[in-house]
């Protein structure tokens, strides 16, 4: 048996090391190696997908001794919550690298960072050991800092610094929570499976650990009011950085919310569920209104992420509050599928905004008009992605949000107010589409080139998957549901 | 006597090395002096390996051959070798070059005496031995700043050591013995316990540069040759902190010493990083950072005696600290002492740039580097003995430290500047060794958890 998970996990890192070891490689070689290793990673992720998950606990577990005297080990594996995210990472990093293959400014360091980020992303989703999880969680931060600081736009240093300090401050409480879980365990161990099977903390200790986790994940998700780093980072980050940040790294927060907060401190989460729910509702609405107020396309997309992640928080909070296992399964199905869909759709949106910016050197909606006529491929792709993002039935977000609202309605009907967010987001995107792509086309954009083959290769897979997930969500939902329906809290 | 001496072979080897290096210098053969010192220290390290796992005392309990003192040798002897290689660049060709190597061996010998102290007199002896050797090392360049730095260092050390000796007299009076192992007998006299302890903290705190006994450190580091600053920030400091650990092991848990240690930890970490935030001289910045890092050690010391994680965490962090701090000093030795010297380093010398980034991130405590596992264990130890608030303070300080170290990292990747890093093979060897150690200690921490 091949150690599939570990192979998938370390393939990108191997690619990065290979690239760094080559003496003075040509940019083409660098990009080819990067794309090849990301493609192999995708093959690995697909193989993991074919292996599937059993309903109970984790599957495809691989273990290796690391620090036996304190009970830390290299432990990786997947369940229905993490497997879709692993697949999402593999897809998104591959298209990001395809998109980046035209880069000529220090390509070696750049793709090495992207590949390192891929390993940390897959590692975060597959780690089953507290220390291992934290290691991946933090290394991703460092890599993203260097990516923004090295290849971002005008004000990148300040944005990168803010991102780094903000998220480091955010992630250290998790370290305390992990230590608390460790010291509370009957047998000193960092095995997350043991923490999930038998939550080690009770009462006030569990509540403190939960608060620490919530701070960490709220920063990462980001939930209002800890979201202020997000627009700054996105605006300054290079396109690939934004794709990874929004598509993958925000999911570290929501994934942690399920894996750590919900599964390791379920009782405390139930007590605090209403508070979390309120934060979710506020985030979703705030994100929607803030998006509506933007004139910069990239900031707009960034704020819609706050909105979409707000729905995930609502779904997880409902799962904690409800006592009915089937409602819980529905809520979690929706939340996990929402993470998956958001990665695809927002990834595509950030790529498309990046393409527009590369051509026009501006992202102000007011400066465009009628782009649908000048660049039809780019335009229609954006329209499709925007419709997916606003939750049109038949596209990826609909089945996810539908299930979240369904579960919410059955548990805390008042929270369905969050549904308002959908209307506002719809308004936001319709306004953006009207200003940018419809109306009179302007003279200065007449010679704008349409999508090149490289760009089509980058965007098309995401759009195809968006449609596939929207029309027939069962190919993902089956895997998710197998775990969520067996979840005991 | 015989078996006692057999257990002390590493210390004896260090002492003989120091003398041999001095003799080589008297024969005007500084090269040979260096070679003898390096080989001698490496042999002493090798001799120590045999002792791993031993837990006993020699000379009637006055010197301990235990986990702590064994690991002190395994960490400090290689660290001295690396400092010596850095020192070679600073003093090569100058008069009395060989004395530097010899003095380094003597100072390390003092640090080892401190780390294994089982008797209050060994505390005094170790403090004086390291002190005398390092005053001379700081003053070695014979320039005005160096002499001034050495003078400050000397006066500060004399006063604090005198306070320590005064306080130790209380302990002697209360317990009737100079052995640390007899300290628990003072249960009936809590005032004597705490008075003596405060005095010991003054004496060892100066050597470990804990706030508020740190004032000499930035000045001495700045005036001294860079390699000596690197040495001072690692070897005597770790020796003193290990000695403090040996002392608190014997103190009654309810005598209030943990509060003293926790207070010093908060002060050192916070003041160290706040002061580092406004330095423009990299040596002063690293000096304040090393003051703050001493504060982190105290998180482990606070748990000594009550948590099994305490000793492994202190040892692990000492190893990590030695590697990453020496590495950072070695890169600084190649670039120069001002922040602007780092401008464009990452672009001009990518490998050295990556190494510096790794050292600094490790000092912050970013996984999976050495500093992370060290701090992780320290936090665990503190939380294990209900000092969660102290761990929270330490964590907030870690964020502050990021702001400090980014002040060096950010200019390294600025466009349009090119740092002119002097290349000397010695710098390269030290940087590579420290780099490898920072990674290995991070990934293979198990080796250090005993």
TrEMBL record, chain A:
Database matches in Pfam families: Proton_antipo_M (PF00361)
InterPro entries reported in the protein's UniProt record: NADH_Q_OxRdtase_chainM/4 (IPR010227), NADH_UbQ_OxRdtase (IPR003918), ND/Mrp_TM (IPR001750)
Superkingdom: Bacteria
NCBIfam families for the chain: NDH_I_M
Gene Ontology CC terms: endomembrane system; membrane
Record keyword Transmembrane helix present: yes
Gene Ontology biological-process entries: ATP synthesis coupled electron transport; electron transport coupled proton transport
A GO MF term: ubiquinone binding
Membrane topology of this protein: Multi-pass membrane protein
Keywords (A to Z) from UniProt: Membrane, Transmembrane, Transmembrane helix
Protein name per its UniProtKB record: NADH-quinone oxidoreductase subunit M
Record's keyword annotation contains Membrane: yes
Annotated transmembrane regions: 6-23, 30-50, 81-100, 107-125, 131-151, 163-185, 205-230, 242-262, 274-293, 300-323, 335-356, 377-398, 404-430, 451-472
Family to which the UniProt record says this protein belongs: Belongs to the complex I subunit 4 family.
Residue span(s) of domain NADH:quinone oxidoreductase/Mrp antiporter transmembrane: 129-420
Subcellular location: Endomembrane system; Membrane
Automatic annotation (TrEMBL), chain B:
Subcellular location: Cell membrane; Endomembrane system; Membrane
Gene: nuoN
UniProt keyword Cell membrane, yes or no: yes
One MF term in the entry's GO annotations: NADH dehydrogenase (ubiquinone) activity
Keyword vocabulary terms for this entry: Cell membrane, Membrane, NAD, Quinone, Translocase, Transmembrane, Transmembrane helix, Transport, Ubiquinone
Name this protein carries in UniProt: NADH-quinone oxidoreductase subunit N
Reactions catalysed according to its record: a quinone + NADH + 5 H(+)(in) = a quinol + NAD(+) + 4 H(+)(out)
GO BP annotation list: ATP synthesis coupled electron transport
């Amino acid at each position: 048996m091949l150690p599939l998970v570990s192979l998938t996990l370390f393939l990108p890192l191997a690619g990065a090391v290979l690239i760094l070891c080559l003496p003075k490689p040509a940019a083409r070689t660098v990009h080819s190696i990067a794309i090849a290793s990301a493609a192999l990673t995708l093959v690995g992720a697909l193989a993991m997908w074919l292996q599937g998950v059993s309903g109970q606990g984790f599957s495809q577990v691989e273990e290796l001794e690391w620090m036996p005297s304190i009970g830390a080990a290299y432990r990786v594996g997947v369940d229905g919550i993490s497997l879709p995210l692993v697949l999402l990472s593999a897809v998104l990093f591959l298209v990001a690298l395809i998109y980046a293959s035209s880069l000529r400014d220090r390509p070696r360091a750049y793709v090495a960072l992207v590949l390192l980020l891929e390993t940390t992303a897959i590692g975060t989703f597959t780690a089953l050991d507290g220390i291992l999880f934290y290691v991946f969680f933090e290394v991703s931060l460092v890599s993203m800092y260097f990516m923004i600081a090295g290849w971002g736009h005008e004000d990148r240093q300040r944005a990168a610094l803010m991102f780094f300090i903000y998220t480091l401050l955010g992630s250290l409480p998790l370290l305390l929570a992990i230590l608390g879980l460790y010291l509370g365990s009957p047998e000193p161990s960092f095995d997350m499976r043991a923490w999930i099977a038998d939550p080690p903390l009770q009462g006030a200790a569990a509540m403190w650990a939960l608060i620490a986790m919530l701070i960490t994940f709220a920063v990462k998700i980001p939930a209002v009011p800890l979201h202020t780093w997000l627009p700054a980072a996105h605006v300054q980050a290079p396109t690939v950085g934004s794709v990874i940040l929004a598509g993958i790294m925000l999911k570290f927060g929501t994934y942690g919310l399920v894996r750590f907060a919900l599964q390791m401190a379920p009782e405390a989460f139930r007590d605090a569920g209403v508070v979390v729910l309120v934060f979710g509702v506020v985030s979703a609405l705030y994100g929607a209104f803030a998006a509506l107020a933007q004139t910069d396309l990239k900031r707009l997309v960034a704020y819609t992420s706050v909105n979409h992640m707000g729905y995930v928080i609502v779904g997880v909070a409902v799962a904690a509050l409800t006592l009915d296992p089937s409602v819980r399964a529905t809520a979690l199905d929706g939340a996990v599928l929402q993470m998956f869909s958001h990665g695809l759709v927002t990834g595509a949106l950030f790529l498309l905004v990046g393409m527009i910016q590369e051509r026009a050197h501006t992202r102000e909606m007011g400066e465009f008009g009628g782009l649908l006529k000048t660049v039809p491929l780019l335009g229609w792709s954006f329209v499709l992605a925007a419709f997916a993002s606003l939750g049109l039935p038949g596209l990826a977000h609909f089945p996810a949000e539908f299930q979240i609202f369904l579960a919410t309605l059955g548990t805390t009907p008042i929270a369905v107010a969050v549904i308002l967010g959908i209307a506002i987001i719809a308004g936001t995107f319709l306004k953006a589409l009207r200003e940018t792509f419809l109306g009179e086309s302007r003279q200065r954009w007449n010679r704008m080139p349409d999508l090149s083959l490289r760009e089509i290769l980058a965007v098309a897979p995401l759009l195809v998957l968006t449609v596939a997930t929207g029309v027939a969500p069962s190919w993902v939902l089956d895997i998710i549901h197998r775990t969520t329906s067996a979840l005991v809290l | 006597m015989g078996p006692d001496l057999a257990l002390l072979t590493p210390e004896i080897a260090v002492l003989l090395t120091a003398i041999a290096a001095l003799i080589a210098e008297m024969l005007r053969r500084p090269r040979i002096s260096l070679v003898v010192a390096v080989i001698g220290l490496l042999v002493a390290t090798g001799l120590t390996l045999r002792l791993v796992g031993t837990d006993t005392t020699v000379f009637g309990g006055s010197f301990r051959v235990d986990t702590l003192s064994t690991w002190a040798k395994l960490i400090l002897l290689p660290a001295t070798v690396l400092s010596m290689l850095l020192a070679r660049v600073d003093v090569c060709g100058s008069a009395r070059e060989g004395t530097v190597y010899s003095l380094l061996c003597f100072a390390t010998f003092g640090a080892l005496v401190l780390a294994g102290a089982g008797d209050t007199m060994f505390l005094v002896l170790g403090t004086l031995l390291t002190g005398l050797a390092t005053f001379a090392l700081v003053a070695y360049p014979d320039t005005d700043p160096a002499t001034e730095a050495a003078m400050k260092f000397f006066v500060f050390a004399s006063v604090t050591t005198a306070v320590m000796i005064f306080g130790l007299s209380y302990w002697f009076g209360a317990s009737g013995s100079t052995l640390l192992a007899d300290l628990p007998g003072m249960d009936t006299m809590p005032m004597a316990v705490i008075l003596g302890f405060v005095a010991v903290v003054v004496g060892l705190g100066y050597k470990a540069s804990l706030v508020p006994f740190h004032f000499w450190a930035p000045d001495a580091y700045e005036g001294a040759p860079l390699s000596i600053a690197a040495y001072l920030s690692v070897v005597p400091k770790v020796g003193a902190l290990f000695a403090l650990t040996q002392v608190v092991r014997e103190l009654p848990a309810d005598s209030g010493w943990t509060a003293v240690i926790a207070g010093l930890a908060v002060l050192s970490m916070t003041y160290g990083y706040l002061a580092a935030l406004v330095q423009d001289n990299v040596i002063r910045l690293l000096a304040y950072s090393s003051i703050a890092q001493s504060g982190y050690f105290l998180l482990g010391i606070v748990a000594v005696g009550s948590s099994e994680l305490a000793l492994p965490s202190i040892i692990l962090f000492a190893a990590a600290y030695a590697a990453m701090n020496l590495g950072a000093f070695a890169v600084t030795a190649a670039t120069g002492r001002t922040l602007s010297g780092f401008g464009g380093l990452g672009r001009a010398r990518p490998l050295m740039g990556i190494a510096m980034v790794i050292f600094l991130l490790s000092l912050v405590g970013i996984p999976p580097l050495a500093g992370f596992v060290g701090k992780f264990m320290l936090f665990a130890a503190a939380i294990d003995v209900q000092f969660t608030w102290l761990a929270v303070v330490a964590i907030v300080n870690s964020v502050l430290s990021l702001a400090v170290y980014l002040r060096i990292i950010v200019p390294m990747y600025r466009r349009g500047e090119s740092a002119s890093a002097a290349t000397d093979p010695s710098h390269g060897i030290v940087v590579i060794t420290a780099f490898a150690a920072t990674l290995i200690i991070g990934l293979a921490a198990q080796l250090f958890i005993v």
